[in-house]
Amino acid sequence: MNMKRFELGITTFAEVMPDPKTGHTVSYDERIRQVVDEIRLADHVGLDFFGVGEHHRKDFAASAPHMILAAAAPLTKHIKLGSAVTVLSSDDPVRVYQNFATLNALSSGRAELMVGRGSFIESFPLFGYDLHDYHTLFEEKLDLLLNIRDHENVFYKGKHRAMINHLGVYPRTHDLHISVAVGGTPESVIRAAEKGLPLFLAIIGGMPRMFKGLVDLYKKTYLASGHPLEKMFISVHSHGFVMEDFQEAYDTYYPSMEQAMNIIGKERGWQTYTKQSYAAANSLEGALFVGDPLYVSKKILYLKQTLGIDRFTLHVPVGYLNHDLVMKSIELLGTAVKPIIDQKLHP
């Protein structure tokens, strides 16, 4: 019987977008400090995880998640502090390990390193990597990262980095939690499962139940690779927003989603995001979690039942949203949504 407690958390990219009404944009300095406040609040209201995602573009402030998380570490007591994600393909696994080993020390073992290939590509030219190597970069660097995790002295010889000839990597840390974030490709799911790494699924569109095949593939491959069932861990992150009143939450959040989805959608050739798109996404079967605590908890419980996950993280905000509203959403996720879910799953 699975005795793991279901976890709830928050993710953010430290979004920096103009207020559609006034045109005002918060400074990067202020937005980064706001995220530290959000982490403190999430810890205070009993949430389990806070993830900060790495990006290198104008509308996001978190290019160095480990720094933001390190600032929050001494201000928090219980919450797990993770990247969501670290773009490993365009980074140096040695520095990534050292940064998160340091964060693990500062947080007394609460650091989580979530690695991915990156759905945005700005970091590749910024750090001098060829996008033609998109797939092999991640595979090679993930192997090196795990080598560093498991061995104090490292030997490495590969295509995309200078050789490491039996050198030590410090500081060392124990039990650094490393997971793999995927957007929905079977190859990425299989890679994580074969290596025995926790899976973090980004479900930001469509119907979450369509991901069941990938979750089942992960579980089957994980167990077939000889990894222990008790260490299997699957997380999902989706967009959302919580207020006391359903209609107020629904009406308040639409401009934020419309703004962000149409900025990104224009770059990627998506259809225009409309109120019809929004309504469909926020149905019980959709991938958007907006409403009052009762409705949001109902959707999270439905997602857990459908996919068999161990953690759900709410990504807020997506476009522009007043910081006070972001804080209120975090507060309600911890004080109102979490008790409903705990009562249902752990009576």
Would you write up a description of this structure?
The protein is an alpha/beta fold and 347 residues long. The chain has a single domain (7-345), classed as Luciferase-like domain (TIM Barrel, Alpha-Beta Barrel). The protein is 43% helix and 17% strand. The chain has helices at residues 28-44, 65-72, 93-106, 123-126, 134-150, 186-194, 212-224, 246-268, 275-281, 293-307, 323-345, and strands spanning 7-12, 49-52, 80-83, 86-87, 111-116, 153-156, 164-168, 177-182, 199-202, 234-242, 289-291, 311-315. Strands 1-2-3-5-8-9-10-12 form an 8-stranded parallel β-barrel, surrounded by 7 helices. Strands 6-7 form a two-stranded antiparallel sheet. Strand 1, helix 1 and strand 2 (49-52) form a beta-alpha-beta unit. Helix 2 packs parallel to helix 3 (93-106) and helix 10 (293-307) packs across helix 11. The longest helix has 23 residues, at 246-268. The chain is globular, with a radius of gyration of 19 Å. The chain starts with 6 loop residues before the first strand and ends with a helix.
How much helix, percentage-wise, in residues? 40-55%
Assembly classification = single chain
Order of the strands making up the biggest sheet: 1-2-3-5-8-9-10-12
Write down how many β-strands occur, each being a DSSP E stretch of 2 or more residues: 12
Overall radius of gyration: 19 Å
Mean pLDDT: 96
Number of domains: 1
Major sheet, described briefly?
8 strands, parallel, barrel
The fourth-level CATH homologous superfamily is Luciferase-like domain
Overall, the morphology is globular
In what range is the share of β-strand residues? 15-25%
* CATH architecture descriptor: Alpha-Beta Barrel
Q: What's the helix-strand series?
A: EHEHEEHEHHEEEHEHEHHEHEH
CATH topology, what is it called?
A: TIM Barrel
Give the low-confidence spans.
Answer: none
